[in-house]
Amino acid sequence: MLMAWCCLVIAGPVATAFDVCVTKLLAHVDVAPQAHVIGLVHAGLQLWACHLARITTHESQSGRLLVAACKRLFMQSKDPANDERFCHVTVVETLLGVLSSQCAHSVPTQALIYVAGVLKNVSGSARMVTLLSTNGAIAVFSKALQVTFDKDVNAAAQVLVQVTAILRNLAEHKQCLKQFWHAHVIQALCDLLPAYASHGELVLNVSRILSKLTLHEAGRTQVNKGKHNLRHLLKLLDGDTRSRQQDAALVIRLAFILGNLTATNDRNRKAIVTLGAVPPLVRMLKEYHIRYVHESPDNDTSATTAEDVLVKLVRLLANAAIHTSVGPMLGTVPGIEVLLDVLDHAKVARHEELMLNVVSCLTNLSFYS
């Protein structure tokens, strides 16, 4: 009732008094002992949510103080020893309220980045996962993915990086999955791909979440409902050669997602051909085979990464080859014979998963020969 009344008072002496109150309260955050920071910022954010502070830009005094207060809260959240201090329903509700679509436009974007960063930092604890899942956090995050926070695309992307990092943490917990399905998180994530294709960190976060969610039938069903989702994923996988070499982690996850989507879905298998993905896939197969063969045995990380990329790419091709029209076509694609070279090297290196995937792919291809 009090909050509803407050929201109606948007001008006059009461609003001015609240401007002063918010400013003075936030000014104390910078000098407050660490033990009181969460409480002070919590109170400041609640007052801000009343929309009584009339000046809400980053350049205003209150805006600068809000950003500074949220930054200090963010710094405190980076220490795992403070996790329990954040694990209170009122604190969680207030932080989620800041990210809600109703409040997001009245808060400086930098403050949103810090608030989302706080939730990301503390979302690893089991208690916080429970608090977030029982307070509708996933629905809030899903809507946050669809909000344009700022005209500055880079600033908006930074908010989205933090939000997707939280979702990545929550996607690992079975207790959260139903909320992912109900909140239509998958489509919100897929919609980010064409808009932010050049933002490596954000796209990688999205791919990490999708790689977890597409392990489940409900997740794959939601991806398949989107008319252009598969096209966007394949286009992102194609990428330019330099970006792929710099970020094999993205290739691994995209190929894994596509492997999940083609594991049991014949329409998706055929789409690999109709969307023109076969030549780029074979080209990548050859590229990573070269890296796989020529990586120094001493460079464990690079060698393992090249192997992992090949495991995922070969699995994807093996799944696609199950389709009655895709299999025969794949067997005649120039360059597909590199699979035999990959198999030879995998045998020597005793990389069992890669060997099994190549054998499976060759078996599916030979079925139509």
UniProtKB/TrEMBL annotation:
Q: Does the keyword Signal apply?
A: yes
First and last residue of the signal peptide: 1-17
Keyword set, alphabetical order: Signal
InterPro entries, per database record? ARM-like (IPR011989), ARM-type_fold (IPR016024), ARMC2 (IPR038905)
What Gene Ontology terms for biological process does this UniProt record contain? cilium organization
Which segments cross the bilayer? Answer: none
Source superkingdom: Eukaryota
- Please name the PANTHER family in this protein's record: ARMADILLO REPEAT CONTAINING 2, ARMADILLO REPEAT-CONTAINING PROTEIN 2
Q: What is this protein called?
A: Armadillo repeat-containing domain-containing protein
What lineage does the source organism belong to?
Answer: Eukaryota, Sar, Stramenopiles, Oomycota, Saprolegniomycetes
